[in-house]
Amino acid sequence: MDNSSPAAGKPAAKPAAKRPPAKSARRRSREHALQGLYQWLVTGDDLGVIDAHTREQEGFDKADRNHYDKLLNGAIEDAAELDTVLARHVDRKTTELSPIEHAILLIGAFELKHCIDIPYKVAINEAVELAKSFGGTDGHKYVNGVLDRAAADLRPVEVKAARGG
Fold this sequence. Notes:
This is Transcription antitermination protein NusB. The chain contains eight helices and no strands. By secondary structure, it is an all-alpha fold. Helix 1 (25-43) packs across helix 2, helix 5 packs antiparallel against helix 6 and helix 6 packs antiparallel against helix 7. The radius of gyration is 20 Å and the shape is globular.
């Protein structure tokens, strides 16, 4: 009897694990903007210092630099207005949110408000993916709910059409 066959009591070889798809340059730009926004929320450092530090991080060269610039600079410049939108949909003051979830919500709200070329469902999904990777255990559910409600404020026509209304 051939002892190398699975029937002879040896386990069959496992199929090779699938690699997750490579991150897009735009996803990488969101991750780096998230790092910068987190630093800004926690330390209050100057945008120039944060930007320089973030650009030194490993993998930054693979990010969509234009989108990163737009997200980091825009979310910081527009933070008060974005927080006003988010405040209508969160269960506490935005200053009481974890800094990582707050930064993710700022990115999502910024994309919903200013990046009309990105479908609203994609903007929300990308924020949810950031929350899954960097946030707390169920933070992605919270981010999804808040941004889904905020999308109705920021993109009412698109949301209404998608929801069949």
